[in-house]
């Protein structure tokens, strides 16, 4: 026989148990949520809060806190990830960029280091990047510039959802500087580490001020530094290709890379442009309203004086392209140093 009181007691104990179970589940969920916010620290990024296309003095700005979709730990999963969307969802548009603040490498490491893998490597954790990009920075004795560059570029490249690595190619010694040869070396050396399909060649003093300017290669070699503050945001000429330019592995091989023989300042960018045209390609650029840059102020560096011979050489691209470039590159690697923010490759370029 059923006893009504027994039944009531049983029902209430079942109810109590299920309430306890629900509470426990909720607590576990909360704890887990807390954990993930530890794994995904947030990167503050100063952005200009406006959709105005020209910067004004009265431009207001805010610090926004974006939760980056970042954790190298989560990339270790075996499941293949979906391709990243064509338009990265976390872009913020115009950025507030200033170089008055002193930025130590230590500070930059604190800001973005936890989101990177040793050597300045990153890949989006929740999708497969559209391109694998090696960012090559020619360098000598510009540490302050590099700190600013790393501080601003890493968050931008992360928001652009690139699978990328930063390679700072340091010219050892104080012989004549050779920007172009350093680029060729960066191409060669980065490919020894990873199967990069796109190469972004960037001066160390150029910081984009809009993150919609994607560091991605396209069907033709691409020139990104279209509008620079130093030149009142006006492109110097239709054939300009210096500053920041991107080529796929195939495009770069097709032109035999840069010439190795442009010592000192000037001409190597024009020669690369000539090579591109000579090989039947053209160049593309993003819209000037977006492809805006600030150049960190600097004078002419020691041992990088204007070389008048370079201007003459730019007239002879067609003669040299087959024999002077990636296929004639010679150099000696002196040291490879892995920082969390970048891979530094010091090289002897055999200056004359
Ligand atoms: C212009 C071009 C640059 C290059 C150069 C001529 C633009 C926006 N920039 O820049 O791409 O064609 O003319 O060579 O068109 N560097 C060092 N240490 C040195 C010297 C140079 O690190 O001692 C590196 C550094 O990355 C620097 C780059 O080489 O940004 C170009 O040198 P620059 O900044 O003196 O030349 P600039 O601004 O006239
Ligand atoms: Mn410069």
Number of strands: 13
Please tally the helical runs, counting DSSP H or I stretches of 4 or more residues: 8
Are there runs of 5+ residues with pLDDT below 50, and where?
A: 1-8, 23-44, 49-74
For CATH, the homologous superfamily of the domain at 117-348 is named as Spore Coat Polysaccharide Biosynthesis Protein SpsA, Chain A
SS content category: alpha/beta
CATH topology-level name of the domain at 117-348: Spore Coat Polysaccharide Biosynthesis Protein SpsA, Chain A
Mean pLDDT figure = 85
Radius of gyration, Cα only, in angstroms?
Answer: 25 Å
**Shape designation:** globular
Gross CATH architecture of the domain at 117-348: Alpha-Beta Complex
In which range does the helix fraction lie? 25-40%
Described by strand count, sense and barrel closure, the largest sheet is: 8 strands, mixed
Q: Quickly name the level 1 CATH class of the domain at 117-348.
A: Alpha Beta
Portion of residues in beta strands equals: 15-25%
Oligomer kind: single chain
Summarize the structure.
The chain is of the alpha/beta class and 352 residues long. It has a domain at 117-348: Alpha-Beta Complex (Spore Coat Polysaccharide Biosynthesis Protein SpsA, Chain A). It contains eight helices and 13 strands.
Which helices and strands occur, and which strands form pairs?
Layout lengths: L3 H36 L3 E6 L12 E6 L38 H8 L8 E2 L9 E8 L3 H17 L3 E9 L7 H15 L4 E5 L3 E3 L13 E2 L3 E2 L15 E5 H6 L13 H11 L13 E4 L12 H6 L3 H4 L11 E7 L4 E6 L4
Parallel strand pairs: 4-5, 4-6, 5-13, 9-11
Antiparallel strand pairs: 1-2, 3-5, 6-10, 7-11, 8-10, 12-13
Helix pairs in contact: 2-3
Bound molecules: uridine-diphosphate-N-acetylgalactosamine and manganese (II) ion (MN).
Membrane topology: Single-pass type II membrane protein
Catalytic activity: N-acetyl-D-glucosamine + UDP-alpha-D-galactose = beta-D-galactosyl-(1->4)-N-acetyl-D-glucosamine + UDP + H(+)
GO molecular function: beta-N-acetylglucosaminylglycopeptide beta-1,4-galactosyltransferase activity; cytoskeletal protein binding; metal ion binding; N-acetyllactosamine synthase activity
